[in-house]
């Protein structure tokens, strides 16, 4: 302080948080001086609270709206003159930390990194991300100030979102490891998952002075690697089931698909050096049919039906012509 102006700080102050930002939960009020004079006024508006720090200690937490008269050891004129040896600076400092008492609602959150667990149906490790929203309010301003804030001037909704998101990963990982929901059933358990995470996160936030009033998981997503692996397994499973419907094993279906691709490729079977009638030969190789000399021995109706079904599959796959199909079908029917 300039010694030529010893009376500059002698006026009583009126302290209030006039322009409250709805996204700020905790705010240190900047004043012209920390040497608040005795009998200065503090105004606490609706939806606000104020934490008073005097001489480095939390002296009071005000949560009721109204006007308060402040008491300090800084008396106008007298204090300044007594502190002449300290360049007119008083050792008695008072700071004001306003905080939001109203609830902060619909804060969006999301897991920063995917959570991994073992999927029971496919028996593979999967990575899941979750997102949703929550509502929170300050339950214990002094605890929040001493355990979380310290010298921070402003604590915002973004800070709360980062805090909650960081606290979600551990309980979410534990829950999924315990439940091991199948990939196709995770969405059906979002309410159960939300309730469990709310209970676990509430306990964590209470230690920091917060009250978690609502918590929801809106959706879960699996990472691209997981989706790709599950997609491949699902395709293979579908092909295997389809093969069993027509009495083929999975290897047979794969061979049939390879032959079908060869037909559709430019040049087709002809490009592979196959002549007219190649379809019949492929049928013999594919189904391991017996030579024409032995066909006369196969007169059982179930076997004939199987061969006709297999022959129709080759025709539908465009591996044999209609003429070849008709000829071979008649040969089988003649042996009945």
TrEMBL record:
Xref: Pfam families:
Band_7_1 (PF13421), SHOCT (PF09851)
Question: What range(s) does the SPFH domain occupy?
Answer: 27-236
**CDD domains referenced in this protein's UniProt entry, alphabetically:** SPFH_like_u1
Limits of the SHOCT domain: 307-333
Could you tell me which InterPro entries the record lists for this protein?
Band_7/SPFH_dom_sf, SHOCT, SPFH_YdjI
Q: This protein is called what?
A: SPFH domain-containing protein
Q: What is the species of this protein?
A: Segatella salivae DSM 15606
